[in-house]
Amino acid sequence: MRLRKYRELVRFPLMNTNEQSLSQKQNTFDGARKLITSTGLVLALCGLLTASRTNAANNDTPVTQPASRLVAPADPKEAAAFQEALEYLSHSAKAREIISYLQNCDTSCKVVFEFAPSEATGLPSDGFVRQEHAIYWIPDWGFRWNHGFASRKQTAAVALLHEMGHAYHAATDPARYERDCKPYSDAAQRNLWTSPEEKRTIKEIENVVSKELNEPLTDRHNWTGVWADHYKTLGPKSTVERKGSRADDSAFSNFGNN
Ligand SMILES: [Zn+2]
After folding, report:
1. Domain of 128?
2. Is the pTM of the predicted complex or chain greater than 0.85?
3. Cα of 33 to ligand 1 centre, how many Å?
4. What is the average per-residue pLDDT within 238-256?
C-alpha cells in the first residue's frame, strides 16, 4: 500500500467502503486512485487462490496446470495494455522472477483494471487485495514526485509490478505477509514506510526492478509532506503526460474507449 496523500487526492470521490472491509489488514493499497467503476475487466494472473485448497483436498487427483496462468482479458485494449506492461517489465530480471512465479504457481490471482477498494483513507488506490486474490491497477496512471528540484516519474508498469510484489509475498509466505502488513509501531518508520510489507516490497522488489529499467528509485511509501501525484500517461510504459487530462478528470474513465 502506498499512502500517497497529496492535494489532488482530496478531490477524488470517496470509495464505496461497504463491501470490502477497510479493516482487513492483509490488504495492501498503493496510492490513491479514483473510483470510477469501469468495465470490471478481470484477467486471471496467478497468485494465491483456491487451487491449493482443492489440491490439498484431492491429493490423489492429479491437477493439470496450464503452462501459464496468465489469461488475457476479453477486452482487447486492456489485454494489450497488460501485455505491454509485462513485456516492458520483462527487461528486468527481478521482474521476470516475480512474474514467472505468479504465472506458474498453483493458485490464481486476477488483475482488475479498476481502482482498489479503499482502506480507511477513503482514497482511490492501486492495490493488492488478498481476500479477493486481486491486483487493482490502472494502466495509464503513472506516479511522479519531486526530489529536491528534480522531477521523478514512474511508469504505471512499475506500479503493477509493485502490486505483484505484494502478491508474491502473500503467496510465498502468507504468515509473514500478514504479520508484515501491520503498520510499524514506531512513528518515524510508519511515517516513511507505513509497514514492513511496504518497505520490503519497495526495497527488495520495486526498486530493484526500477534500477534495472532505469526508472527512479523511491525512498518512502508514505508521501505525506512531499509533492507527489498521479498523472495520466500515454500507456503502461510511458512517462509522458497525456496532455489535457488529469488522473481525476472525466477522460480517465474512458480508458479502453479511446
Ligand atoms: Zn504496496
Report:
1. 7-55+65-250
2. no
3. 13
4. 58
